[in-house]
Design goal:
Oligomer: single chain
Radius of gyration: 19 Å
Low-confidence stretches: none
Bound molecules: UDP-4-deoxy-4-formamido-beta-L-arabinopyranose
Distance between the termini: 33 Å
Helix content: 25-40%
Shape: globular
Number of helices: 11
Order of helices and strands: EHEHEHEHHEHEEHEEEHEEHEHH
Number of strands: 13
């Protein structure tokens, strides 16, 4: 995109800017000419991430180290920045297993921070709001691929409940506000790392998610990984998911903002599936990793994992057509960038 320097750079507030998807999205927003500020209290991320974002973009990103559950501190950001054109709200806890062990931590953190941000959206009349949602709102779908109209099933975890409730809170709040628009983005399984190798996923503790479990096993941080069940009714018995490169997810946020800024939206709370549109089994992902990395992976077949959805992948036609979203990365790219990032982490 040829950036028009005469255009006034629109200011975007990214909450959770030091997080995995937040940091990749800031890179894409800056590349596309937006003026970005971040709010992140680094409770689940490192402040070094925004230094890496600066290395990639050549732009220093101002971060407010604020806990969004504290309204007065959140409000102060908007008093200091009364020209915010849009907000992308990533900040939330997202570990499914932790949410089962400590549901109230998730309800308090994820919903209080959302309500505080929306109170500021209303008071300061911020025109555009993008909410980070998840395919987890579909639960175990009866029919796949899922479209944005696929009925939601009961959430499989308190984390999933906070996304279902979060969507309702955004939808009903935006319906009460005039001339303010929002978009809900339902991510499938974001994986991989920025091609520069400077930012990527930094799991806290033993990784619950498949790709970091694979790369940490391959690099020797984990002795062996478990495939949680191979007796499901799928191609090879292991679960099916829609893996999507984090940079493709990030670019979709820029496209969603432009969609709102150009007033192309028909409803004031539109929903988009952000998935690749392809379903791969756990064993197919492992095979692809072995092919790309040239490493044989040490894994064993373990028992099924409670709460696992058997198979889900997206119908992404709406995002492809309406947001003009062109995906750049395939499964091999996801494995390659994830592996490069894991090797980089080892050397830090
Ligand atoms: C994928 C598959 C596991 C680890 C995630 C996020 C959730 C949401 C959706 C954003 C499953 C299997 C995993 C391992 C394995 N994202 N697996 N061995 O469960 O789809 O949920 O994406 O909102 O926040 O958690 O992803 O990577 O945990 O699991 O066999 O060591 O890999 O059983 O079938 P999941 P996952």
């Amino acid at each position: 995109m040829i950036f028009c320097f005469l255009c006034i750079m629109k200011k975007i507030l990214v909450t959770g800017g030091s997080g995995y998807i937040g940091s990749h999205t800031i890179v894409d927003l800056v590349k596309n000419g937006f003026d970005v500020i971040s709010v992140d209290n680094n409770s689940r991320s490192s402040p070094d991430v925004l230094k890496a974002v600066e290395q990639i973009t050549g732009t220093r990103i101002k971060n407010y180290n604020v806990d969004l559950c504290i309204f007065d501190d959140t409000h102060a950001i908007f008093q200091e920045n009364n020209d915010i054109e849009g907000i992308i709200h990533f900040a939330a806890y997202k570990a499914v297993g932790e949410s089962v062990e400590n549901p109230l931590l998730y309800f308090e953190n994820n919903l209080t921070s959302l309500v505080n941000i929306l109170k500021c959206v209303a008071e300061f009349k911020v025109p555009h709001f993008v909410f980070s949602s998840s395919c987890t709102v579909y639960g175990n779908p009866d029919k796949i691929p899922v479209t944005e109209h696929t009925p939601q099933k009961p959430a499989e975890s308190p984390y999933g409940s906070t996304k279902q409730m979060g969507e309702d809170i955004v939808r009903q709040t935006m319906n009460s506000l005039k001339n303010q628009q929002s978009i809900l983005l339902r991510y499938f399984n974001p994986v991989g790392a920025h091609p520069s190798g400077l930012i990527g996923e930094i799991p806290i503790g033993r990784p619950a998610n498949l790709i970091p479990a694979i790369t940490q096993t391959a690099i020797g941080k984990l002795p062996q990984m478990q495939v949680w069940g191979n007796d499901y009714d799928t191609r090879d018995g292991s679960c099916v998911r829609d893996y999507i490169h984090v940079s493709d997810i990030a670019h979709a946020h820029t496209l969603a903002l432009n969609f709102l800024l150009e007033e192309k939206n028909e409803s004031n709370c539109d929903v988009f599936n952000l998935g690749s549109g392809n379903g791969f089994t756990v064993l197919e992902v492992i095979n692809t990793f072995e092919k790309v990395s040239g490493q044989k992976l040490n894994y064993a077949i373990g028992p099924r994992r409670a709460g696992d959805v058997i198979a889900i992948y997206a119908n992404n036609d709406k995002a492809v057509k309406l947001l003009n979203w062109k995906l750049e990365f395939g499964l091999e790219d996801m494995m390659r960038t994830a592996w490069e990032w894991e090797k980089k982490l080892k050397n830090i």
